[in-house]
């Protein structure tokens, strides 16, 4: 579904991604794990068109991706950014509707809104609350719900567990598995290696801009060197 070939990204003199190759199969959860500054967000930003690579090709459903973010969104790729970036002064419902602003299929939008409420009952309880007054976990749910309101095929999820209490982390990862069951494909970047590997089909380990390891997520989860290097950090 998505293929990244020889991706190189620089920020001035910093070579943030060094010849990255990844593949995401339709219907899968693919996790990219790695510590702070490994280049995880940069990879998602390059796919969503927010960062311009110096070199490399990204193809989606067999065709090269356009360079502009809104054209990439039009193709059904949605990014849920780190830090959530919700509209603090809008209500929960208005934030969700912002996710559907490119659509005009009203009936389907309402159906998707219902699905989002089923997935996140907490959001439904708070539809008229200002988004800025939600807890961190609720804001994460809102950012994910808003992404789903665009009816994407591929969701780029950046550190969904960041800053959340353990119980909420568990909930968020259960919801990620539920989203997969809605026939969505998910590319997830996470520092919480254990959780990210537990839900994934395929995984990549990113270290200082280079893919150090890749393969079946459950096999990587059993890999002693990975456990030692990354699970201490979760
Ligand atoms: P974290 O888990 O801490 O968010 P990450 O794996 O997502 O880290 P990136 O945010 O992709 O890592 O950063 C990769 C490298 O690129 C880091 O060294 C970072 O300082 C650098 N970097 C990221 N964004 C910029 C920018 N806009 N300008 C300059 N350097 C940047």
Automatic annotation (TrEMBL):
MF terms in GO: ATP binding; ATP hydrolysis activity; branched-chain amino acid transmembrane transporter activity
Signal peptide (UniProt feature, chain positions): none
Keyword Iron: no
Domain ABC transporter: 2-233
Keyword Nucleotide-binding in record: yes
Keywords: Amino-acid transport, ATP-binding, Nucleotide-binding, Transport
Pfam families in alphabetical order: ABC_tran
Gene Ontology BP terms: L-amino acid transport
Coiled coil: none
Protein family per UniProt: Belongs to the ABC transporter superfamily.
Protein name: Amino acid/amide ABC transporter ATP-binding protein 2, HAAT family (TC 3.A.1.4.-)
Gene source species: Natronincola ferrireducens
